[in-house]
Design goal:
- The chain is mainly α.
- It has two domains: 62 residues, Arc Repressor Mutant, subunit A; 34 residues, no CATH class.
- The protein has six helices and two strands.
- It has a two-stranded antiparallel sheet.
- Strand 1 and strand 2 form a beta hairpin.
- Helix 2 crosses helix 3.
- The protein is elongated and about 55 Å long.
- The two termini are 32 Å apart.
């Protein structure tokens, strides 16, 4: 199975809009992006055309206004990018990745509780 290419920062911004709002036209995505960055409509359109060619987006052109949607769910994209970073930056060490993440951005109490629950579930799975 071939993995989807890694999106650039601007491509990720477009994907975040689509993950948040669902399928949308270029105009709708451009309007949402204007809230966080000044980017021209034609730049958004061209970037989305490139993303379509790269396999990051899918397009429904059955209507006059083309409607775009992400080719992969947010979690799938995050998992692919995480696997890539884990291998390239942390030599495949999950421990190093987690430790670096915790040093850079401490967890909230809710996140800590969620992590403890995940660790406990993992321990239960390992027991015979």
């Amino acid at each position: 199975m071939t993995e989807a290419p890694r999106p650039s920062d601007f491509e990720l911004a477009i994907l975040r809009v689509l993950w948040r709002r669902g399928p949308a036209t270029v105009r709708q995505i451009h309007e949402d992006l204007l809230q966080e960055r000044q980017q021209g409509y034609t730049t958004v359109l061209k970037t989305m055309q490139i993303m379509l060619e790269k396999g990051l987006l899918e397009r429904d052109d059955s209507d006059k206004s083309h409607v775009y949607r992400p080719a992969l769910a947010e979690q799938e994209t995050q998992a692919g990018m995480l696997r890539d970073m884990l291998a390239k930056v942390f030599g495949g060490s999950t421990r190093k990745l987690v430790m670096a993440a915790l040093k850079e951005s401490p967890m909230s109490a809710a996140e800590e509780a969620e992590l403890k629950a995940l660790l406990e579930a993992g321990r239960r799975k390992r027991k015979p």
